[in-house]
Design goal:
This protein has 57 residues and is α+β, with helices and mostly antiparallel strands. It is built from two helices and two strands, in the order E-E-H-H. Strands 1-2 form a two-stranded antiparallel ribbon. The longest helix has 19 residues. It is flat. It starts with 12 loop residues before the first strand and ends with a helix. 12% of the residues are buried.
Length: 57
């Protein structure tokens, strides 16, 4: 399945609303602290997933 975070095809992961998040990205997201450089990217990506979900309902 296509991961909405890293944009790669990876089978293992979770379905979050209408998006697939692979196991690697899920682990990275849960370990990211607010101070980390990746934090803004993950927040932006999750915000877009939420927006997309709202427009589909």
């Amino acid at each position: 399945m296509y991961c909405s975070v890293c944009r790669e095809n990876k089978k293992e992961g979770i379905k979050f609303l209408n998006a697939h998040i692979c196991k690697d990205c899920l682990n990275a997201i849960t370990k990211t602290r607010v101070e980390d450089a990746e934090y803004e990217y993950y927040m932006y990506t999750i915000k877009n997933i939420l927006k997309e979900c709202q427009t589909n309902y």
